[in-house]
Every structure is written in structure tokens, then in C-alpha cells.
Amino acid sequence: MLIGLTGGIASGKSTVARMLRDHGAVVVDADLLAREVVEPGTPALRSIQDLFGDDLIRPDGSLDRARLGTIVFGDRQAREQLNAIVHPAVRELAKKRFAAAAAADPEAIIVYDVPLLAESETLSHFDLIVLADAPAEMRRQRLIDLRGLNAQEASRRVNAQASDDARRTIADVIVDTTRSLDETATEVDRLWARLTTTDHT
Fold first, then answer.
1. Are 33 and 90 in contact (CB under 8 A)?
2. HSE (CB half, 13 Å, CA atoms) of 112?
3. Cα(119)–Cα(163) distance, integer angstroms
4. What is the pLDDT of residues 42-67, one digit of tens each?
5. How far apart are alpha carbons 162 and 82 in whole angstroms?
6. Structure pTM?
7. Interatomic CA distance for residues 81 and 49, integer angstroms
8. How many angstroms separate the CA atoms of 83 and 88, rounded?
């Protein structure tokens, strides 16, 4: 069973993913895959270097993700160009991880933790789409309070992603992450019980 878990930046999605992992899910993290596909020597990193310039490559050959983020979060065209390089590579690697998890355990519940599901992914191959949901203004404030971003940068990052309504439209299950961790955990417990029933309803 393949679950798509999505949510905007600072939505609490990673917290929900961790709770599902604790229940026994196999979690595949798209953000980690996105780092893997741009490691030194990869075709994706060479394409990024060709497109955005040598200044984005650190002395050790790795990608300067912070500098790249500053560029793409403020420039829609640049972001789309970057996504056209990274997303196909991430999708291919994700498919390999799904296949490996299913081969290891045919009964596995695989959770694909992917922030940009509403923007870029094909939805049909997921059995269920789960949204970690917190409104944009709360997520902006979390970026300021918890990650030290200034208000302008926080807004840029939130606005660079799909709208709250776009995510809610594709979601089969919404986990409210605006309340306490205990309340979020209770919702995740309920979701896990649903996933582990015989008919998954």
C-alpha cells in the first residue's frame, strides 16, 4: 500500500511521517532523495551547474543548497527549471525505493513523504493521499519562530508552494497539525488503524 503524505513547508508533515514510521510504516522521504540525486558526480548536479553557474558548487564539489534556495524561491522560472531537473530524478529513485520496500515485505505500508505532491506528482498511483494541514499564516510564523527566517523570506517560501486549497482538494485524509502533538498523534493513530484494517477503509 502506497500512501502519499504531503503538506506545505513547516506544516508538521515530518512529524506525521515520524509518527507513521513509529507505527511501522516504511517512510521514503522525497527531500532526502532530492539531496541524493544532486550529490557530487550526479547528472542532476551537472545540469544544475550548467544552468545556474559554478558559484553554486562548493569547494568540495557539493551543491550550495542555501544559495540555490535563495535564487529559486524568489524566481518562478528558475524554480520551474530546477524542478524539471530534480523531479524526474527523484521520481525514478523513489520508484526504486518503493519496489525494494515491497520486495522486502509485500504487506508493507509505504509512506512517500513529499512536500510538492499537489504541484508535481502523478496522484493516481497512490492508494491514499494524506495531508498534514496547517494554514499558511501559521506556517509563516513557524518559519520565523522555529527556523529563524525573516518575515519576507518566510512569505516567499510559503508562497512558492501550492495553496492550502490546492492541497486540501487532493487529500483523502487531513491531519490537523495546528493543535498539540498529543492531538496530532491521536489523529495519526486513527489513520494507522484505518490503514491496517483489511479493506483499508
1. yes
2. 28
3. 10
4. 999 999 999 999 999 999 999 999 99
5. 16
6. 0.87
7. 12
8. 8
